[in-house]
Design goal:
With 672 residues, the protein is of the alpha+beta class. The protein contains nine helices and 41 strands.
């Protein structure tokens, strides 16, 4: 479980020779290498957008849209991106370069943008920076320049780094200018310059941007040796910290760093210049107010994440097979809320249908409605049908802790509640990772037995503010995000989860709604629901990426109500049943080497379960692909589960996989 307060590493009041010798023997790694204190050089965009032709540092990629440089009405040069020639399906990317980037440094990226009209904002805008995709919220007014900015950490990247602006769908014409990137640093304010403080536990203050997290180092030595240094952090959204415990008389040195918007390990933060102060003899400590302890709820079970990233319910590994927005529509009601008595009562047959099909997890936005009576009735039904529920929270965006606590305490008794859904697509709305961490700490203090989850696209920024990441990269038939990219996206998400400071895992949210098919010109206007093969393929791509479950979006969304698409609904239930039956295999360890698998774009993974090895082949491509398998000599038999027939054990086995196909083979692998 993640910490609920800043981690403070205390040193003893008196340094002893024994401690010093022990420190040498252990050869501690310095918390912050000296080179981390170098003042960052001025980072900058290589393209000034001044109207010059033949710019070597920028170019465009587009699908029927226009892009270029032009002078706006105020006489300034600006970049323009315009999808007007292809309304409804145009897209474009502007690619440029940022120079002078240092690793592990927080940067604030900002630029001006202006929409031609408010109706031009039907599209989705992103910027790609440091290998991540970040949302750009729409403007409030047309023909008015407004400034967009976001803080992001460079991670391991350095030097000249790509930067892209991407528009999907119909954004029509938008102008951009004044691109800037500035290193964000915290500056020590007080006490500094050898000032003699009045207390032995003074308040340290610094200047830095709001909505950030910070790390501190405090030492009796200007060199900040590991054995003589307090390490404090992350400190969330604050500009001060009172020293705890009180300090011995003498000179003390301190420095502060941005611990990054991603709440990375404070040990890797880039610290600014150190300052020092003096604690005089006889200085007394100011009493520190201890907050009232939070009494945790009595949860009916424990849901934890193993060090390997497995989701454990009462110690047993579980694979989530879920569905979003589970509620029957009642058009006979004046108020068609997600949470009325009639709506909830109508869910009993649906819950039975879900459980029988193979689903084990549901979500409903109405759990955040504040209608506790109806929500408890909904959860009672889930209890009765053996379904788990991710409860959507309310009040988190405004940090309304009292409302969040009341909601959690109202619903905690239900065995169906396996986690608290902090926010849906918080990164898409620009919700601060620091605020997410503040709410996370509060919620885990109230319920330390169950995880906090959040739907995200940019998982790296939130890995230390959740226990369960729910990535939702809807990639079906989108020209900028083809299907085969889903595996890469989810692998990156799982890598982010493994990089968290405490055990964190992920379960993917997959597209089950109708969409505009960029490759189907006949039906493009009306769109279509995903096919059985597409849904099954993206489910197995998730499993191949190490996801601990799949949740389909959605039973009842603005785009699709599954009851109105009986064939599609039947396909999803068929897939849910297959995933349920194969869950023990998915949760089993990786299997032994079976040979060499080759084929353009073909993904594969193995599991070892119940004395057999299972080989899964996935073709995420739009066209049929050939597959070659050179079996190891230890593989003696192979059986195709989809075709229910044995496979001839040729030395070079060949087959073909249609578009989006998944094939499973049960192998006998002889022990060496």
């Amino acid at each position: 479980m993640k910490k609920h307060a800043p981690t403070v590493f205390h040193m003893p009041a008196t340094w002893t020779l024994a401690l010093a010798l022990l420190a040498v023997a252990m050869s501690p790694i310095p918390i912050c290498a000296q080179e981390n204190n170098v003042t960052p050089p001025t980072a900058h965009f290589l393209n000034p957008i001044d109207g010059s032709a033949g710019d070597a540092h920028s170019h465009w990629e587009h699908g029927g849209a226009r892009a270029g440089y032009e002078q706006t009405a105020d006489g300034h040069w600006a970049l323009f991106l315009d999808s007007t020639p292809t309304p409804g399906r145009g897209w474009y990317i502007w690619k440029t370069t940022m120079a002078g980037i240092l690793p592990n440094t927080d940067y604030r990226v900002s630029f001006d943008r202006m929409y031609d009209t408010l109706t031009d904002q039907g599209g989705v805008t992103r910027c790609h920076i440091f290998g991540r995709e970040l949302p750009v919220p729409n403007s409030d007014q047309p023909r008015i320049w407004d400034r967009y900015s976001i803080q992001v950490n460079s991670g391991a990247l350095a030097g000249d780094i790509p930067f892209d602006i991407v528009h999907y769908h119909d954004s029509k014409k938008v102008w951009y200018r004044n691109f800037q990137i500035v290193a964000v640093e915290a500056t020590a304010l007080a006490p500094i310059d050898g000032h003699e403080v009045a207390e032995s536990n003074p308040v340290l203050r610094w200047q830095a941007p709001a909505d950030a997290s910070f790390a501190l180092q405090l030492s009796s030595s200007p060199d900040f040796p590991a054995a003589q240094t307090h390490r404090v952090g992350p400190l969330l959204d604050t500009d001060h910290w009172r020293v705890d415990p009180p300090l011995e008389p003498g000179s003390w040195y301190w420095r502060v760093a941005i611990a990054s918007a991603a709440l990375v390990n404070p040990d890797t933060a880039r610290y600014g210049s150190s300052e020092h102060f003096v604690v005089p003899e006889g200085a007394a400590a100011v009493p520190v107010e201890v907050p009232e302890p939070i009494v945790p709820v009595d949860a009916p079970h424990r849901v934890t994440i193993s060090p390997e990233g497995k989701l454990l319910i009462d110690g047993v590994p579980r694979f989530l097979i879920g569905l979003y927005a589970v509620m029957e529509e009642r058009t006979d009601l004046e108020e068609n809320s997600y949470m009325t008595d009639a709506n909830v009562a109508s869910c009993a047959p649906l819950f039975r249908e879900l459980a029988e099909a193979g689903f084990n997890t549901i979500q409903n936005y109405g759990t955040a409605s504040g209608r506790d009576k109806q929500v408890n009735a909904y959860l009672d039904l889930a209890d009765q049908h053996g379904l788990w529920v991710l409860v959507q929270m309310t009040g988190v965006e405004g940090l309304h802790k009292t409302a969040v606590e009341a909601q959690m305490r109202s619903f905690t008794r239900h065995p169906s509640v396996i986690g608290w859904l902090l926010k849906d697509e918080g990164d898409m709305s620009g919700w601060s990772p620091v605020k997410a961490r503040v709410m996370y700490d509060w919620m885990r203090a109230i319920d330390p037995a169950r995880p906090v989850a959040m739907v995200v696209r940019d998982s790296a920024n939130y890995i230390n503010a959740v226990d369960l990441l729910l990535p939702d990269p809807y990639t079906l038939r989108t020209p900028l995000k083809p299907q085969h990219a889903l595996g890469e996206i989810l692998h990156k998400n799982q890598e982010d989860a493994r990089a968290a400071l405490t055990p964190t895992t992920a379960a993917s949210v997959l597209q089950a709604f109708k969409y505009e098919d960029e490759f189907d010109k006949e039906n493009r206007a009306d769109g279509r629901v995903p096919s059985y093969e597409e849904e099954r393929c993206i489910a197995y791509l998730s499993i191949a990426a190490g996801q601990q479950g799949v949740l389909f979006y959605a039973y009842h969304s603005s785009a699709t109500y599954l009851k109105e698409y009986p064939e599609h609904w039947a396909n999803l239930k068929r897939i849910a049943g297959e995933l349920r039956d194969r869950s023990p295999i998915f949760l089993a360890p990786e299997g032994p080497a079976i040979g060499t698998v080759s084929g353009e774009g073909i993904l594969h993974f193995t599991r070892e379960y119940d004395g057999a090895t299972y080989l899964f082949l996935i073709n995420p491509d739009l066209k049929e692909q050939a597959v070659h398998i050179a079996w190891n000599s230890s593989v003696s038999t192979a059986h195709s589960l989809e075709e229910d027939r044995p496979v001839t054990m040729e030395e070079d086995f060949q087959t073909t996989l249609p578009a989006f196909a998944v094939r499973t083979y049960r192998l006998t692998v002889d022990a060496k």
